[in-house]
Amino acid sequence: MHWFAVEASISTCTLNVYDSDVAVISDKQLQSFMKSWSTLFPSLLLQSQLFKDDPRLTIPPGAKRCKEFNVHRMPVDSVPQTKVSGDCGVYAIKFTPHSIAVAAAWGQGVPMSWNTPHEHDFVIKFTLALLSAPVT
């Protein structure tokens, strides 16, 4: 099993993939795996009614669904790479709340670091939710 973090950029209609171990899955395999998400995610946004007036998430006349999001694997030099294969889940768990916290703080002009107290609380809750989820 391989984990990576995905950031959805609604402004660019892109799913940015942060992969901490690029040797595990090729670009072609990643594109194939993310194909369903590139279609599903914009449809979920549209169905939520939160973006009903956003022209990027409309269904064009004659089409059955809205435009797919692009999938972009972030460059290796912008994503910390794990030294030991198998640490990808830890990276995804750590990166996700950090990314959310930085985005929220950036919108308010607050500087953030990797060790923000609120981020730590989020990581604990997120990890506990993952550990208590049923295994399928």
Strand segment tally: 3
Question: Order of strands side by side in the largest beta sheet?
Answer: 1-2-3
Rounded mean pLDDT score = 77
- Largest beta sheet, briefly? 3 strands, mixed
The radius of gyration over CA amounts to 17 Å
SS strand fraction: 5-15%
CA-to-CA gap between the ends? 13 Å
Task: Count up the helices.
Answer: 3
| H and E order | EEHEHH
Overall shape: it is globular
Helix content: 40-55%
Query: How does the helix and strand content classify structurally?
Result: mainly alpha
Q: Which regions are unreliable across 5 or more consecutive residues at pLDDT < 50? A: none
The count of domains is 1
Instruction: Give the oligomer, counting copies of the same chain as homo and different chains as hetero.
Output: single chain
Describe it for me?
This protein is mainly α and 136 residues long. Helices cover 42% and strands 10% of the residues. It has one domain (5-132). A three-stranded mixed β-sheet has the order 1-2-3. Strand 2 (14-18), helix 1 and strand 3 form a beta-alpha-beta unit. Helix 2 crosses helix 3.
